[in-house]
Each structure stands twice: as C-alpha cells, then as structure tokens.
Amino acid sequence: MNTDLQANGSPLDASVLLTLPRRRRDSNKGDFGNVGVLGAAAGMTGALLLAARATLHLGAGKVYAASLTPALVVDFMQPELMLKSLDDFFDSPLNVLVVGPGLGQSDAARAVLVQALQHRATLVLDADALNLLAASAELKMALLQRSAPILLTPHPGEASRLLACDVPTVQHDRPQAALQLAQQYRAWVVLKGAGSICAAPDGSWRLNPTGNPGMSSAGMGDVLSGMLAALLAQRMTPFEALQLGVYLHGAAADTLVARGVGPVGLTASEVLLEARALLNRARDADCCSD
User: Fold this and answer.
1) What does CATH list as the number for 3-289?
2) Cα(197)–Cα(123) distance, integer angstroms
3) Tens digit of each residue's pLDDT (9 = 90 or more) over 64-121
4) What is the pLDDT of residues 247-283, one digit of tens each?
5) Residues 63 and 81: beta-carbon distance below 8 Å
6) Pairwise CA distance, residues 81 & 62, whole Å
7) Strands 197-199 and 188-191
8) Which of 24, 54, 129, 168 suits a disulfide with 272, CB 3.0-4.6 Å?
9) Is there a contact between 203 and 197 (Cβ–Cβ < 8 Å)?
10) Kind of pairing, strands 188-191 and 150-152?
C-alpha cells in the first residue's frame, strides 16, 4: 500500500525538515536547478521579488525573474537574482517555473500563462495564475495536457473559483476540497489557511499544524511559492516538496513569534530568512546526532 495513503490526514511533523537531500561536497550550482519566476503587474513588483528571493534563500542554484511591467535592471537587495525581459525569459534553461506573484489578470498576464503552460518545466501556480485558470476552459485544457508536474497553491477564495463553488463549501470540508482540486487538475495542491492541507492526485493528503495569525499579511503566499519552487529544483518529488515547504513556512513564522517578532507586524521577508535558518539548523542537528 502507498505509505502516503496510510498516513492520510495525519499532521506533518518536524521530521519533514530532514527530507531535503544533503549536498555532496563536490556539488555545483547546476545540481540545484534553475528556477524562473513570472509576475509583477504594475504596482506589484514586491510580490515577484519576494517569491524570487525565497527561491534563492531555499537553495535553488540559479533564479531568473521577469515582470509584466518594464523590467528591473537589478534587485539591489538581492543582486544574485537574474532579472530578465519577457522577450528572452523563456530562452533561459528552466527546471521549475513560478507563475502568479503580482501577475494580475490582464491580456498580457494571460499570454504569459499560456507560454508557461506550454513550457516543459515543473510549474508552481499561485495567485492570479489560479484566477486566470479558473476563468478559462482553454487554459484548463492546456494544463491537463501537460506531462510535467504542477503545484497549485490556492487560498479558499481561489479554491472556490477553481472548483466553481462558494468559499463556505470549501471551508466546510477542506481535505475534500483539496483532494477534489488535486484530482480535477491532476496537480499537487496546498489549500492554504489555518491548518493548510497538502493533497496529491493519488488521494494522499496531510494536515499542516504550523503557522499563526501573524501570517495574515501581504507576501506570505509569494514566499511560499518561491520556497516550493526551490525544493522542486533540488529534485524533491512534488509531494515531498509540498510537505516540507508548507511545514517550514509555518514553522519559521512560529519561531519568529516565539521570539517576539510578531504576530503583530510579522513580515514575509522575515519569514523567508527564518525558513532558511530553521532548515539549516535542523539539518545540522541531525548531522551531529549521526
């Protein structure tokens, strides 16, 4: 029997922090994948940068980013990011694509999503990419024709649009809603919220116990999508990446709140830095106990 199915409904725990493969001493950046992040309609550049920075801080080898608005030349806070124009973005050697942070729902945003769905990379779809998908049978068909894995990261409102129901229906049975999304879209899904649900197309699902009300602020979802992309780029399976990313995202926020950084005023930028630190601390402790 599938061990994931045997664990259905059980809460995730700190053991997932040890599931990311350890790095060989002779590793190079090519071993940890190339991630592209697409988004940033006018006024929403911050969402793109949060997702891209989270991807970098969770270990992706290279991170490319492109915006719908005129391209930034450099992120002065994170010069390691490679900021591209849309004209040549898809020429980059990408293993994983994040589409949605600050994307908007314009015709240009839809065109970008069409290109992403045609790309061979693993996809992480968030925010307005999900809203565009929910509104278009054509986009859904393009998604279902893909062979590469897809991760969807809806909050209850986005989930209701994807399932063509109302939010109370989603919230009444969150595991069922997450599983329905996973099966209907042939995707791995995190239904975000208090007690996020991680679900897989084969019927596996897990409950995430981490997180707190301080995460009810702008940018938290952008950071999660970038974290998931980084883990996928490091050759984790979609369900492994989903469980580690979702647990770590909430655990980082919990660690900060325990230190008095929040819940009031907790920011997504703080969470992405703490997520990196928490992951490395857990792995160092495990290494020392061997």
Assistant:
1) 3.40.1190.20
2) 19
3) 999 998 867 788 899 999 999 999 999 999 999 999 999 999 999 999 999 999 999 9
4) 999 999 999 999 999 999 999 999 999 999 999 999 8
5) yes
6) 8
7) antiparallel
8) 54
9) no
10) parallel
Rg from Cα positions in the chain: 18
- Pull the structure tokens for residue 272: 């992405």
Would you state the structure tokens that stand for residue 214, as one six-digit string? 């301080």
Q: pTM for the complete prediction?
A: 0.96
* Residue 121 tokens, joined: 């990379």
Burial 26-53 (b: 16+ CB within 10 A, else e): eeeeeebbbbbbbbbbeebbbbbbbbbb
Residues 6+ apart with CB under 8 A from 42: 68, 69, 104
Record the tokens describing residue 42, joined without a space: 């006018």
Q: Could you give the C-alpha distances from 12 to 113, 120, 154, 247, in angstroms and in order?
A: 32, 31, 19, 7
The single-letter code of the amino acid at 132 is L
Q: Which amino acid is at 100?
A: G
